[in-house]
Automatic annotation (TrEMBL):
Its EC number is 5.1.3.14. It comes from the Bacteria. Keywords: Isomerase. InterPro entries: UDP_GlcNAc_Epimerase_2_dom, WecB-like. Belongs to the UDP-N-acetylglucosamine 2-epimerase family. It comes from Sandaracinobacter neustonicus. This is UDP-N-acetylglucosamine 2-epimerase (non-hydrolyzing). It is an enzyme of class 5 (isomerase).
Amino acid sequence: MHGKSPLLAVCGTRPEVVKMAPVIAALRARGQPVLLVFTGQHGDLAPQMLRELGLVADIDLGLHQQGAAPAQLLASILMRLAPVFAAWRPRLALVQGDTVSALAGALAAAYARVPVAHVEAGLRTGDPAEPFPEEMHRAMITPAAALHFAPTETAAQALLREGVDATRIHITGNSGIDALHATEARLDSDAVAAATLAARYPYVVNPRYPLLLATIHRRENIGRRLGAIAAALARLAAFCETEIVLPLHPNPAVQSVLREKLDGLDAMHLIPPVDHMTMIWMMRRARLLVTDSGGLQEEAPGLGLRTLVLRQATERTEALAAGASELVEIQADSIVSAVRRTLLRGPMQPVFPFGDGRAGERIADVLGQWLADTATAGVMAEAF
């Protein structure tokens, strides 16, 4: 491996794979070996994303426990990661975001006395229940991290308020924007892929009504909130106010409610989960995005796509400040009113509050300098 000790990049979900891919590519381009450790948290979904991004899982923990309770999942991943760290003795572990896999990667590295670099550090809503359990996860990763790659100034300030040493914080932009630019370039250069998507989803290319793209999956929205969201979408579709495309999350608790409320409506298209390229292709053609996703809140502004956020709070406040997104009360009447009001607004110019598409390069540069300058044992002694 070029005579260098590897870094371990721990990922387990589709968003992690998308956002870690530019970082891994930039590190490898600089000659730094990186092993991708796939936990299997999104066992059925992430391998497809790996192939799309040209990645291979160097180490597959073989977990594939999608739908497991967070505590069970965390324990299972930790047990499988411990021997991996013992066998490879990496210089550093990379984790991204706030998933169970990210927390497990940070804890396993800390237990093995391996420094941790946290990609997308410092996101906070200030409410442990919004989003749950991710708000807790990212706050728990912070003390274990030696390096904090904050996507924005807001995220960096949150870390400083928590007492993180300023020398350990690096504002890099969000690597999800790197992935967005790369995916747009592929769409623009691959006529066959574009034609295939157009043939598969003709209602996206030629919608009869303004195209609304919706995604719903958050744990805290399951229950009464999900019923309200479904009721709002049903009203919009039934009165042909919008053509709605809704990729269904695999969670049965989400699918059952949405299918019961929305199946059979002429202007409603319930489709299986889509890959990253397909999602970006759809977002480029939509008039409005209605979502509880974090990553889509970051990508939509750069596509000139207005977003209604179905959450009580968001950690992506930069999009709110830019006028690209709006928090909506999760009541059927409020959602319908917000959709109608937003569709009356004119086109939005693309804005990039989350970075310029060079986060991977910046992270790789910082890590390269850190690896050259720092003895692992010394950093771990300082980090704890």
